[in-house]
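Structure ticket #2291
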Amino acid sequence: MKATQKLHDLGQSLWLDNITREMLDRGTLGGYIAELSVTGLTSNPTIFEHAIAKSAAYDAAIRTQHEGGKRGEQIFFELALEDLTRAADLFRPIYERTNGVDGWVSLEVSPLLAYDTESTIAEAKRLFECAARPNLFIKIPGTAQGVPAIEEAIFAGVPVNVTLLFSREHYLAAAEAFVRGIERRVDAGLRPDVASVASLFVSRWDAAVAREVAPALRNRLGITIAKRTYQAYRTLLSTPRWQRIYNLGGRPQRLLWASTGTKDPQASDVLYIRSLAAPFTVNTMPEATLRALAQQSEVGPLLTTDGSDCEAVLAEFARVGIDVDALAARLQQEGTASFAKSWNELLGVIEAKSAALRRE
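Resolution: structure written out below.
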């Protein structure tokens, strides 16, 4: 049995962290669903920038949208929604079969709004309405300004994938926003079954400290932060406050492992998959990582909920000068800036293609 199937059977959802129009047109995504136990998909500005810049598959649609008077960001969202609604329809049987637990795709609001609460709320509502698919998450960053937007979007009935979380504390803030949104829905007499995932970025931790630590500590920080967060996650799931929501018909906000492609060429390409096997979670991975996992037959030991070794490992990093709280804040800022850079490059690609197509 493939490791992908084993992880699925153990209760971890495997999602693909990629989308391209060719993947849809050629049936590649359908193959991943049928053969590799893929039950969802995530996207971000960098993924779309690469997809559109490196392919002619979007050219006809760009021409049509441009001739219709649309520009830049408008064209992008038309392209992204076409891809993601097609993907959502492929996953719809899984969504129906699991009663909305699985079978999701994700679309991110403009990263230029990461520090603008009100605009993020408005854009989240607009994009979810435009998609017209129940199994489409709107990605909202877990920045200080994004946290209240998460609460408002959940209250409005918009499913949310909270992105750019880097620490236990980032996760707890996102989880609190989710619970508040659901509790407000209960108080207002609304259905409490609005779905959400909280995406913790893992590998960027190790990339950030690779040159600052001894070989014995390399590729250990991201996994330790993830284990620490998993402990907090499982603790929250058992609290009376969360159980009240479940009793009223709500559902958990699941923890999702993001940034799980291995950055260190000397490390296993499935390092973060084998190390973060855990029920009640999602692991979203690049295509190369998914294919590498499919070649394996074994999975790593399941995560425990005690997190007993986490503080000892973090103390080792502290002794060599790594301040994890400061680094978490820096990584979130850098992640936000990186997505904004990809966003601007993406709009530049669309504009350049529009101009080139006009000249043909």
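Closing remark: The mean pLDDT is 95.
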